[in-house]
Design a protein that fits this description.
Distance between the termini: 47 Å
CATH class: Alpha Beta
Keywords: Hydrolase
Shape: globular
Protein name: Lipase/esterase
Domain BD-FAE-like: 74-180
Strand content: 15-25%
GO molecular function: triacylglycerol lipase activity
Family: Belongs to the 'GDXG' lipolytic enzyme family.
């Protein structure tokens, strides 16, 4: 299906309520997670892109939810994180990372959660729209860094599962600068990312022999940003060996990559949920994320 695209570089924001959306196994406000209170952060939404389906003529606006500290100013130059939700490229919602965003905003960051086009569940279409939207969103945010009060040189990509693939895709693929804006992040925050799309990896039914165009694990170079990766040892989509190989391949080319394994945990374990004893695992992953960002001198 072909699409006609028009990028709407409009900084029109609409104030939204606290958005703890129902993403892939996400717990809402009843989690005991010691995150900043709602008075400590501000949440808004803006449109980064409009797409028109040539076959139907229907136009769809793609949005980004963003969270910033209450003392934020457009004159700031804060570090930022751009999150992509999971859902196999076919489902999920940006709200999956609302709680992560709120917590990182409590550390002074500005966080963004991207809505991107999804693929049909029964189709065999490769994730071209997904990676295109992820790239466009990242570039849009960077191009408007002065309006968002962020430092364009301190932007991380982050995501879980298929969203982790998109975050890793931006970090490992050859950069494509459009109108002066790069899509390359300066760090990657990866939660059980499906970043091996080659033979024996995840998503091969969609990418086929062209897996090298999509697979972060097959595009690691010395120019890639540092990463932190979280994975459960019982993940049915990503073998531990895959994550260890990604870490080792990064190390071989001189790129820092941390791998944190969680014994007995399944896919999606990192989400705050009721079965997690009040968010203990979520809390641990966030503490490690904060420590990683501190080691980069992004936050104090």
């Amino acid at each position: 299906m072909s699409h006609r695209h028009s990028i709407a570089f409009v900084f029109a924001t609409a104030l939204i309520c606290q958005s703890f959306g129902s993403g892939d196994r996400v717990l809402g406000q009843d989690a005991t997670l010691d995150a900043p209170s709602s008075s400590d952060v501000v949440e808004d939404q803006f449109i980064y892109k409009s797409v028109t389906d040539d076959s139907s003529g229907k136009s769809t606006e793609l949005f980004v939810d963003w969270t910033r500290p209450a003392d934020w100013s457009a004159e700031d130059s804060r570090p930022a994180a751009v999150f992509f939700h999971g859902g196999g490229w076919t489902g999920g919602k940006p709200g999956q990372f609302a709680l992560h965003s709120k917590e990182l905003a409590g550390h002074g960051m500005v966080c963004f959660r991207v809505k991107y086009r999804l693929l049909g569940k029964k189709s065999k279409t490769p994730p071209d729209n997904c990676v295109e939207d992820a790239s466009d969103a990242f570039r849009y945010i960077r191009a408007n860094a002065s309006k968002f009060g962020i430092d364009p040189k301190r932007m991380a990509s982050g995501g879980g599962s298929a969203g982790g693939h998109l975050a890793a895709y931006l970090g490992t693929m050859d950069d494509q600068v459009v109108d002066g804006a790069s899509r390359k992040p300066a760090a990657m925050l990866l939660f059980n990312p499906v970043y091996d799309n080659g033979p024996g990896g995840w998503g091969t039914a969609r990418v086929g022999d062209e897996f090298a165009k999509y697979s972060p694990a097959h595009n690691i170079t010395k120019d890639d940003p540092p990463s932190i990766v979280f994975l459960g040892t019982k993940d049915n989509l990503i073998p531990v060996a895959t994550a260890e190989r990604f870490r080792d391949d990064c190390k071989e080319v001189g790129v820092r990559s941390e791998l944190h394994l969680y014994e007995g945990q399944p896919h999606g374990f990192f989400n705050a949920k009721k079965t997690d004893g009040g968010g203990k695992i979520y809390r641990d992953t966030m503490e490690k994320t904060v420590a990683f960002l501190k080691s980069l001198n992004w936050i104090e």
